Amino acid sequence: MSVIYVLLAISITVALVFFVAFVLSVRSGQYDDAYTPSVRMLFEDELLDQESNLDTDKAEITQTKRTNQ
Amino acid sequence: MANMTCYHCGDDCGRDKVRFDERDFCCHGCKTVYEIFTSNGLSNFYEIEAKAGNTPKEVRSKYDFLDNQEIVSKLVEFNEEGVQVINLSVPSIHCSSCIWVLENLNKLHPSISNSQVDFPKKTLRVTYSYVNFSLKGLVLMLSSIGYEPYISLDEYDKKEKRKDRSLIYKLGVAGFAFGNVMLLSFPEYFELPAGEAGVEEFWLEQYKPVFRWLMFAFSLPVVFYASQDYFISAYKGLRSKLLNIDVPIALGVLTLFLRSTVDIIFDLGSGFFDSLTGLIFFLLLGKFFQQRTYSFLSFERDYKSYFPIAVTRLNQDKSEENIQIYKVKVGDRLLIRSNEIIPVDCMLIKGSAQIDYSFVTGESQAVFKESGEKLFAGGKQLSGLLEVEVLKSVSQSYLTQLWGNSVFSKDKASAFQTLTDSIGKRFTAGVLTIATLATLFWLVYEPSMALNVFTAVLIIACPCAIALAAPFTLGNMLRIFGRQKLYLKNTNAIERLAKIDTAIFDKTGTLTTTKKDAILYEGVELTTEEIALLKTTLRASNHPLSRSLYGILQSNAIMTLDEFQEHTGKGIEGRANQHSIRIGSAGYVGRDSIQTSADTAVYVSSDDDFKGRFVFKNSYREGISTVFQSLGSSMQIGVLSGDNDGERKQLQKILPVRTQMHFNQKPEDKLQHIEHLQKEHKVLMVGDGLNDAGALAQSDVGIAVSEDINVFSPACDGILDASQFNKLSTFMELSRKSIQVIKMSFVLSLCYNLVGLYFAVTGQLQPVIAAILMPLSSISIVLFTTLMTNALGRKLNQPTN
């Protein structure tokens, strides 16, 4: 019988988690620029390709990757 | 190969092409950028997008003021522990290659730790360590690869502006609540009418309160947070005795909430929480759609974004110092280099001034000044170094005082009553009448139903669809215009554009183009040798007139000059093979000047023998006569020019007969002229420079025409790319059509309301019906307006493209 309470509680908790995630993402500025990340995302692979061609430091790649995010 | 294009920037290589690394470049600048990129492992730039580069401009000492730490500390966002963060505006960002190269700046200099592009805003955020590096170094580096940042006085004054993200939060809250409330209402949607109930009914009965109170809880943030703008706006409207569209919306939201709460408290029904949250969600969606505009353009620019941050001051001991412009005091000596803007009213002490005031006054020709004469702020020195004495401080200069005029603080959008608001007024009155009549009827007939009917009418008549029609139609139109390079400040500008019945144009820079001059030769025909000598001589000169003349002269024989002399402000002289040629002002070539004509001309003499003159005519934009013809049929047109009337005859030939023309207009004259016209007309002002700023601000709609939308344009309601000037009348027509689309959708939404009202007045409004009717009407309005505007927008693509 009271299983309905459990279900409701779970569904609302899940919904709230997503809501909080949304608020946090807005606050961190993710919605301020909706275009550039879509382009930036496509660069990562090319960057890796080119880096390995030039035999440069691997650490630098990871660093660029991190800073690009 | 005739059509060789530059590997870096894609421009035509022309004659001075540079060959390097088996590739062609249009100039050494482009070649250098290519070298920088390839030697630093950034050659990928050319893979992402071909020929996407920018030609770097010569900057030299332009950024010396960045040595001044006080200025730097004002510009940077973060400045601690050896690290600085700066947000630079880089107007030349235009493609994915730009993003890629600018985000890999750390390969060009190890001190840069991070760089991030915001493409829509065209800004670059750089984090760097200033131990072995400086802001000046960064700016010079960016300029050397063709991404010169735009640093103006505006940047210096900018206060830390917090981003307003409240709308997106509200939209999130409303969407979240809408979805959950819908889900929680499902059991009651499927509830069978009483009597046919089966065993399941017992189950529903038992848990009804839980579901209902949960819905109530979800609706609380929607009513009290997400919809607060509507309540505030309605309250403001009522206080100023205005029934705007937000009044019925606020009324509807309030009624929905109160009625639903009463319903669930007394177990009268499930309430209308689903409709309530859905309504607000859709309304906010419309607002969101309307609000997104062109973040990379600024429509509120004043002289500050045109002026430099710093100038070079000449101290008593002859030392030069870069000082911030606000620190310039009366009596200071300043150095103005060529191509610098004069920031204050001043007196010329040394040097020969040749000043281009076209942006400030609309005069098309450069003005020559001798020492002892007064120079006004805003002019641009064309060639040579000047030493000046300051007469007035920045804020008191002639040009900057114009900004003290009250038109610049006026907000056109709030003074204008939109179509939605004017309809909203009648609509609200109508709804309240119906509600009262229906209630009175039920009070007599069946008193227990009266309150039910009253609230039901207010709920169903909530003008959701009406409130959505304008944002979606105009928002979509704004985007369509944007794709055709007319960038309007807000949707309100389209509505105002639709009402225009008078169009006034500026001449210099608006009707004429600064890109090319039409040059005519009058006089004795020159021999081939003379032309060759003339061209060679011109080649050595940097004067803008020499450059344009050099561009049109047909001669390939470049000879070596034995002698070359430049007399600044007068003319140039070249000598080769015992022949000499002089080009310059009439007096310089030994000719009585003042040829009555107001045209700009240079005079030529060969071996001290006067030959003739080259006359520079303003060249008009293509298609302006067609624009004027088509505009002239539906409205009054006129020309207001700051220039002299030398072009009157030529303009009369191009423009329709009825066109009014006024010349020698000062910025204030233009403003007053517009103001005068506005007594009877709705006026559109089309201009380009600071001299039009007052008129643009005063007019009902001010549109700035710009050859390059990324550089400065004065405060206005819209920026039109000069290449699209010939589409102006189509834009106006489309604005009028958009208003018709809004009116049509009003009729459509009224139909929905009538159906809803039938249920409401007869007292049969069930929550399910409301929950179906409301989104249905909203969605059909959105679909209708989007399809209609897209169909209209197709018209823009057809002609001339």
From TrEMBL, chain A:
Domain of life: Bacteria
PANTHER family: FIXS PROTEIN (PTHR41532:SF1)
Protein name: Cbb3-type cytochrome oxidase assembly protein CcoS
Automatic annotation (TrEMBL), chain B:
Gene3D superfamilies the UniProt entry points to: 3.30.70.100, Calcium-transporting ATPase, cytoplasmic domain N, Calcium-transporting ATPase, cytoplasmic transduction domain A, HAD superfamily/HAD-like
Keyword Ribosomal protein: no
Subcellular localization(s) per the UniProt record: Cell membrane
Parts of the chain that traverse the membrane: 167-190, 210-230, 242-258, 264-285, 427-445, 451-474, 741-761, 767-788
Top-rank lineage group of the source organism: Bacteria
Keyword Phosphoprotein carried by entry: yes
Membrane topology listed for this record: Multi-pass membrane protein
The Putative metal-binding domain, residue ranges: 5-79
Keywords assigned by UniProt, alphabetized: ATP-binding, Cell membrane, Ion transport, Magnesium, Membrane, Metal-binding, Nucleotide-binding, Phosphoprotein, Translocase, Transmembrane, Transmembrane helix, Transport
Residue span(s) of domain P-type ATPase A: 308-403
Record family assignment: Belongs to the cation transport ATPase (P-type) (TC 3.A.3) family. Type IB subfamily.
Protein name: Heavy metal translocating P-type ATPase
Organism expressing this protein natively: Flagellimonas algicola
